[in-house]
Structure formats: C-alpha cells, structure tokens
Write a structure and sequence with these properties.
Mean pLDDT: 91
Radius of gyration: 41 Å
Strand content: 35-45%
Number of strands: 33
Shape: rod-shaped
Oligomer: single chain
Low-confidence stretches: none
Distance between the termini: 21 Å
Length: 477
C-alpha cells in the first residue's frame, strides 16, 4: 500500500514537470525562433516479488513469469522540436533575417566576446562600431570577410563589420570609354564657321571630373569634318593647361616646329593627347564611315591619350589620367533643318568605362545567400562580407542557454569554427522577416488537459491509499 503512495507521488512530480514545460512553451508563444519542448515519461525500476522460473518438461510443469510491481514514473527526456520552423513575421527591417532551410537546422553564429553561440533569432542591428549585433543581447554576428579583390575568405568566422571607415566610401574609377552620337547637319552654320563644339565629361583615377572640348568643323569636302581637341577643363571650368594673365595658352615651339602647350610647367605636344582627325560620313546614306587620323586611317574610334600628362617625377606635380577610347560610329550626317544634335557621353553604349567619382555609402542589403553588399551613390555595389551558418549532426542535442541562444554539447557535435554557406543545403535568407515561435497552442492546451487529468488521477491514488490505511488502522477500535 505504501508503494501506491510513492508511485502516485512520482506521478504528481512528473506531471508537474510536464506542466512546467507546457507553461514555458505557452509563455514563449510569441518569442522569435523559440522551439517548443515536450516531456517524455519513463517507468521507474520494478520490485520483483517472485523471479521467473523455467519449465520442467520431465516433470510436466511449466515455467512461471516473474512477479513485478512498478514503483512509479519519472521524466525520461525533454525533447525539443528543433526541426519545426516557426512561421514568418514580416517586419520590413533589412537587418531582420529569417533562415529558410528544409529541416530548420541551420543556425546563425554569434559571439559574446568569449564564446561562440548559436541562434535562429535573426533580429540584428548595426551598433556604434558598425558591427551587426543581436538586438536582445548585443552579441556580434559571425561570418566570412572579403579580401582586397572582393573575394570571400572562407577560413574562419569572425565578427561582421558592415560600416567602417573602409566601407563608408567606394573607390573612384577613371573613365576609359566614351562615345559620340547624334545628328551633324551639313547646313549647321556653327560647324561651317568656327566649328561645332561638343564636350565629353570624364573622371581621373582619383575621382576628379574634367571636361574635354572638341571642335567639329566642316571641310570643303561634303561629308567630311575636321575634329580637334580644343581644351580640357576642370570642374571649375578652368583649363588644365597653363595660361597667361589674359587667359591665353602658354605655348612654345617643339623640336619639329610644332606648337607645344604648357602643362604644369612641362611642354606637351597636344597632338600626342588627341591627334587631329577627319570625321567622314557616307554621302548616300548619311551614316558614319570612319574617324581617321595619320596613325589610324579607317578607324571607328580614336584615343584621347591623357596618360601623356602623367609623370612619375616626384619633383613635378603628377596627374592621374587614364586614356579614353572615343567611339564616333553612332554619329550621323542627316538633314535636321540646320540644327545639329551631336554630342558626347562618357562610357560606351552598354554603360561600361564611364568612370566614377568617390562614392558614399547609401545602403546595405543582404542577399538570399547571406552576402552583404554596400550600395554607393556613384553606382557601385560592393561585397562587404558574407554570413556563415553552423550545422550540427544532432541539432536536438544543443543546449538552450536563454536569450534565444544555444551552445554545443557532447551530443550535438562541435562547431568547426568555419561554418558553411547558407545555400549549401538549398537554404536561403529572407531579409525583412523574422522566424516566430513554433509553439502550437492547440496542442499545448490539449497536453495541458491531459496533464491536469493525470495529476488529478495520481492525487486520487494518494487519497484512496490513505483511505485504505485509515481502514486498516480502524480495525482496532
């Protein structure tokens, strides 16, 4: 009779444990990335009052089973529904990240400064030092860095710093291509007189912008025009060539009698920068034929050789120009009522080689494979770093330590310190979303009812056993 009392007490304790787990699940019904737990019961050891015996065929007696009385119940295990993904909550915050993987066993790697921990909660923000951190704890998100060429280095994970002095700006690029397009009307008075002026803006290697001015003048031959470089001016409209007090170019005579310009005190032959060319159109079609010069008689492009202005002489102020290939093939010689629309643009028709000024960071985006890009106001998009995830042989073996974090155990498997790509198992990241709790309230309330009835039944065993003990005591009155 005492056994039934203690069996019922063990039943009360285990049902109370189960109720504690259910209560914790319900309390965390709105906790992001929370994984519900459940209690598994197991029997306590049995008391054997009579052991089993073998049968005796010769004597004609059969065997007997053991007589055992159970001593109650205990909590066998607390299982975590680690593979059940919670539903998605849209937040619109670009640094709220949700892991999409089939088995929900990928984990963000975060660091508390000493240890690496693991979480499915993707609520991150950029702290004062530019690091991506968990909103609730400040733990830094871990991932892979990139080298100077923008290649991801997958050697070990480290804290991801998305905003720093290095990432706030994007390096400028020199212009390397340009094109001239539009209509050049043969009745254009300016082209017949002083020459039609067209301009092409460009950048040097340091991101400073300049404008090259060209003159296109009609010749005595129909469909043929002389193209010359008139000047190159900086962003303030001042010529880069040396001028006197009246604004006239300072010139000198070269070794072959040619006119030399002065550039930062150096004599430069302007023909080495841009060789005088002849722009020729097909008179029957009005289409472009060639842009010819002494060195390129039938070309479609002609070079603006700005590199001749550069110098490596430390005693002379150098420049940072790159050569520009100018394409004239899209220009046309049509009737446009005496008005020309011809003009120049930096870059080619596909937009390549335009050059860029120094770019300021305007935004940060996270792609579905975990790569984090910086967007700049000069049009550049630069890979800053990449988020890595941890995978475990037995994710259910991870230990919950609070704050939506887990740590590895002997039964979960160890983290190798490198991590894997999010897309390695077909997974991805959704930006602007969070994973919610996977607690199913209907199941929890059902389990609560069953647990309550189990607790009540065990309490009835105690009261019934007490009644029997009372009857036993009352045998002697």
């Amino acid at each position: 009779m005492m056994r039934s009392l203690y069996s019922a007490v063990s039943g009360l304790k285990t049902h109370q444990t189960r109720m504690d787990v259910i209560g914790n699940n319900i309390a965390n019904v709105n906790t992001e990335a929370f994984k519900a737990s459940s209690v598994r019961f197991s029997e306590i050891m049995y008391q054997t009052t009579s052991g089993a015996s073998a049968g005796n065929g010769a004597a004609g007696t059969g065997g007997k089973n053991a007589k055992q009385i159970g001593l109650g119940v205990k909590s066998g295990a607390t299982a975590v529904n680690i593979t059940g993904a919670g539903s998605a909550e849209t937040t619109g915050n670009p640094f709220d990240l949700r892991l999409n993987d089939k088995n929900a066993t990928n984990f963000f790697v975060v660091s508390d400064g000493t240890n690496r921990l693991f979480t499915r909660a993707g609520d991150f923000y950029v702290d004062g030092n530019g690091y991506l951190c968990m909103s609730s704890t400040g733990y830094t998100l871990q991932g892979w860095q990139v080298d100077a060429k923008g290649n991801v280095i997958k050697d070990t994970v480290s804290s991801l710093q998305v905003m720093s002095s290095a990432t706030k700006t994007s390096a400028p690029e020199a212009t390397t291509k340009a094109y001239v397009s539009g209509v050049l009307d043969k009745n254009d008075a300016q082209a017949a007189d002083t020459g039609r002026i067209i301009t092409i803006g460009f950048f040097d290697d340091l991101g400073y912008n300049y404008t090259a001015k060209f003159g296109i003048k009609k010749t005595n031959t129909d469909g043929t025009y002389d193209v010359t470089l008139k000047d190159i001016v900086d962003s303030k409209g001042n010529s880069i060539f040396d001028v006197d007090k009246d604004g006239n170019f300072i010139t000198s005579q070269g070794p072959n009698g040619q006119t030399m310009y002065s550039y930062k005190g150096r004599a430069v032959d302007p023909q080495t920068i841009f060789e005088d060319a002849s722009l020729v159109f097909d008179q029957s079609e009005g289409t472009f034929t060639s842009i010819s010069s002494a060195n390129s008689p039938t070309a479609k492009t002609i070079n603006l050789n700005l590199s001749v202005l550069n110098t490596q002489d430390a005693s002379i102020n150098g420049s940072n120009f790159s050569n520009i290939e100018v394409d004239f093939s899209k220009s046309m010689n049509y009737n446009n009522n005496g008005t020309s629309t011809i003009g120049g643009m930096n870059g080619d028709l596909q937009g390549d080689g335009k050059g860029k000024a120094l770019g300021a960071l305007t935004g940060i985006t996270v792609s579905d494979d975990g790569k984090i890009y910086g967007s700049y106001d000069n049009g550049n998009t630069v890979l800053l770093c990449q988020i890595a995830v941890a995978q475990f042989a037995n994710a259910s073996g991870l230990e919950k330590i609070g704050d939506n974090c887990y740590q590895s155990t002997l039964n979960s498997g160890e983290f190798d310190g490198i991590g894997v790509e999010i897309s390695a198992d077909g997974g991805s990241i959704s930006s602007g979303e969070l994973e919610m709790s996977n607690v199913d309230l209907s199941s929890q309330f059902t389990d609560m009812i069953v647990t309550q009835r189990g607790f009540q039944a065990n309490s009835r065993v105690i009261t019934t056993s007490d009644t029997l003990l009372e009857e036993l005591i009352n045998l002697k009155r």
